[in-house]
Amino acid sequence: MIAQLDATVARPEIAWDGLLPILTLGVGALLLVLFRSLMKQLPKAAADQAVPVIGGLTVIAMWVVGGFAGTDVPLAGLRDDLGDPLFFLGLLIVIGLAGWFAQYLRLSVDAALTVMIGLTSLAATWGVWTDRYEVDGAFGLVGDQLGADGFSLVITGVIAGAIVLVALLLDDYLEREGMAGAEMYVLMLFSGAGGAVMASANDLIVLFLALETLSIAVYVMAAMHMRRSESQEAGLKYFVLGAFSSAFLLYGIALTYGAVGSTNLIVIADFLEQNRLVENGLLMAGMAMLLVGLGFKVAAAPFHAWTPDVYQGAPTPVVAFMASAVKAAGFAALVRVFVTTFADHADDWQPAVYGLAILTLVVGSFMAIVQRDAKRMLAYSSISHAGFILVGVQAASDEGISSVLFYAVAYTFLVIGSLGVLSIVSGEGDRGTSLDHLDGLSTRRPALALALTVFLLAQAGVPLTSGFVAKFAVIGAAVEARSYWLAIAAMVTAVVSAFLYLRIILSMYLGQAEDDAPTIRVPRAAGLAIIVALVITVGFGLVPGELDDITRDAIPVLIAAG
Hints:
The protein contains 24 helices and two strands. It is mainly alpha-helical. It has one domain (16-552). Strand 1 and strand 2 (146-148) form a beta hairpin. 55% of the residues are buried.
């Protein structure tokens, strides 16, 4: 029986080099758990030196793996360089300096290692892009179940970058709230690995498993603040509604399987080349269920009801991760399923996404301006931004996909920077999130007020910021697809949303701070995260060409085995 099984079931080919960005996040989470268990047995002085030591061991491991793997690894040329003693010594010095810099930032060992894991994943992603994708094009990772293309690599890079910045925000936050430990970082790394798999999925079952890996970790992260009932309520609400949406997604997968006989996106695409979608009621129903399930993950109206309450109750750095990495992964799945798989029948699903985009834009923009809590404002703002990204999805073109990727990258840093400032200002227990607590911020912390102003103006789409370029790109894609009314709706709601951001800015500069207002302390690590987000926001606004070129080269494809 075993021999017969071996004869009929072929083992999938695995491209380990392409899997490195994903494996770095997943295995990094496991290693972080192991490391924390070992560190409990060591004195604190030894634990403080862990970052440079582990960095050095990482370099040695790269050297050894490179020697055995030959050229079948990203950054293969690095293997030869590592054979040079001077280069090897220089790299060790760099790692040591990185460890010193981590100590200067007063990072905990957990945060420092998470930052290192995120940067390693980001470097591996860039290595796969330059050493494999630009040379050979898209390729399979695990048979025809996972594939690496420009689209998946950009999304993986976005997730890795978000992990690095959120880890910097989390460090002081967890210490301030009495939640220090590795749990939050481990959950974030597992969630990031699930998001990266979502972006690479070529099969609906793989996509579902990856989505659940991402979601379950975020459910726990949202409820981690045990001393705040709002946090536990947020986690429970997110879990219940998330499970409801997962049921829709799973039912959609079942209906799709019933109609096509496979959950593989390549097989589904081949089936649609020979059959009309509108003539297959079972497949149409499956497609509708898939849209509902994924619509929940990206917080598209009318599946957005969870967003304001969860964003308000969850720890602020966790909200930053949800609004950036989780949203990017959700849109990656939406693009891969609809724009790529159902590409030949775009006319059948575009009207649904058209209506979804308009409703999301309107609900997000108009509901945001009546809020009094800054986190709820940014929650509805994120819904509005989801609507803008849906405008690019609705275009169902290369221009639309490029605009979606550009918007995802730009918004990731915008929202992390905005919520990073809010995390610092809100104080212990996230109590200071109301609009009144931002009054007079320009006099108390001018640098924070200036940074938040830039982020808000970028979200409003003011020129010379990445937000302007991103909105211009999605509206341009809608015009190219002749969705003129959708483009007009996007522009009108952008003007409405500007009122929200100006309202916050006026509070910071014209409002009067209370005499007994607490002193705002800016941690070094969180300050660095905000500075990085600020530089990227302004940089991509002034010089968007490089990112635009990358997103135009990152068109998703379905990769067949072999």
